């Protein structure tokens, strides 16, 4: 295994009303290629800031972050945009698809910014949509798709530029339990195909599906543990989640 | 890539049709105003030029100089320095002058039977029709013989003829009319001339200048002398010759100023063109302001659009759109608005200009220069007023934009 991202003594502070807030205070983290990692923690723990950092949407106040060999803290806004475009596939809680734009065009968008020819864009976007099982809905607009379908489109969009890292921020937060299961299965498949996945969530049932769970608290890594349950008993684990949810809702 | 960004920008213009149209309206009106104002300006200029040219293209008008009464300048024409003999001398001595006609005019009551009118009586000589390009509808103009004999003969303008003879059923030629109580024989009626410039020559009666001086004014000075140059090319030489001839005749010392003034067609033309130019400039200025206001409207809507689409901008940036891509997208959008407005304005303005041209009979009034200028100005406005909103969009931080609700 090779190192994909390496975070060393990362600090991120914000100025809010003249007061300095430390969202992250000295995080050390290494993720290898091919890992399936869940970042968990209560709200205010710094996990969202961490996700912005890993996604190159934000830069550290101090410390270093290397992604696939690039020192992110030294890059300009435009270089960060190129890095996001080439290296990272984003999956958001609320899908963040462009309205009034078909599924196919949404999936084509990252390739447009990568400067890929229209013919190849179309070809690859269709393949990506097929891969997430939405081939027959590719000409529909987001408002004509269900939540689960929209999330599939956004996963297709995330994958289409062949990123080294799939970064998902509460990907099932807006979905019902059945659709959640579908999407999580899709992630499991993608991981099995060799994709590196980092999933930010506060739901234990979702986090439990990853192979490694990193818990944040007060801007620091609280725990970093391997998760064996899923590997040994995937069906049983899924069953346990479902029953747990059913029990909760009754 | 550029094509794709253009498509995205155009789609956003199309997505809000009503709003886009209202935004364009400022530019539409502005461009229309530019095209129309240049058409109106050109219509005025064409009108003035054609009227002045109808006065005869190689005519010089010589007017007496000004007098001062108690230090108050009475204006050109107030002095009585020109005489018939001056006119004769100019015609004989100046090689570039073809012919001259003196002109004495005053107004008088004219009576024929039960009809009467008050009109201008113009005393002149036989050269008048040739210089002023007057043709005869009936009868003939008086001859040099009539002038030397100071005959009581009159040539009527078409409007005077109408007033005096309408309903009487008689042929005016050969009839006797009373001018200020003196009987005159009508020997001709001039063809209608189309109102030309300062005086309506259809509402006038021409009589021999000698008759006018003997019977009516009792003075041997004339109000003005008309001179025609041999050709339009020698107008300036003719003017210089007349000036030197008159200075000798009037015995002016080299230090004295002219006691007369020579008015050249070109001078009048340029003076009047100046006036129409001011009119055109004024209209152009108003059009430019309208375009400017249109540009501010575009900026306003673009700013609203950037705020509305903050989330969209965030998504685009998150998945890899560089600053320049977002900047280009919004610039193209404002450019699309201003350019579409310019095209619509151009079409409406062209239709308006063609209508003005048809109604005023002043020909084709479309000015390609004004049209190109209006479109270029619109493009500039789209760019200038699009830059601020587009920069605002491009500079959004992706995390802030994504979090925006």
Global mean pLDDT of chain A: 88
The CATH homologous superfamily of chain A: P-loop containing nucleotide triphosphate hydrolases
Our count of domains of chain A comes out at 1
- The SSE order of chain B reads HHEEEHEEHEHEHEEEHEHEHHHHH
Specify which chain pair forms the largest interface: A-B, 27 and 21 residues
Extract low-pLDDT stretches of chain B.
none
* Assembly form of the protein: heterodimer
Approximate helicity band of chain A: 25-40%
**SSE topology string of chain A:** EEEHEEHEHHHEHEHEEHH
Distance between the termini of chain B: 29 Å
Q: Which secondary-structure class do the elements of chain B indicate?
A: alpha+beta
Whole-number total of structural domains of chain B: 2
Describe the structure.
The complex is a heterodimer of chains A (250) and B (405). Chain A has one domain: Rossmann fold. Chain A has 9 helices and 10 strands. Chain A has helices at residues 47-54, 77-87, 103-114, 118-131, 147-159, 177-192, 204-207, 229-232, 234-249, and strands spanning 3-16, 19-32, 36-40, 62-67, 70-71, 88-91, 165-169, 197-201, 212-217, 220-226. The longest helix of chain A is centred in the last third of the chain and has 16 residues, at 177-192. Chain B is α+β, with helices and mostly antiparallel strands and 405 residues long. Chain B is built from 13 helices and 12 strands. In chain B, strands 4-5-10-7-9-8 form a 6-stranded mixed β-barrel, surrounded by 4 helices. A two-stranded antiparallel ribbon of chain B has the order 2-3. At the A-B interface, α2 and α3 of A face α1, α10, α11 and α13 of B.
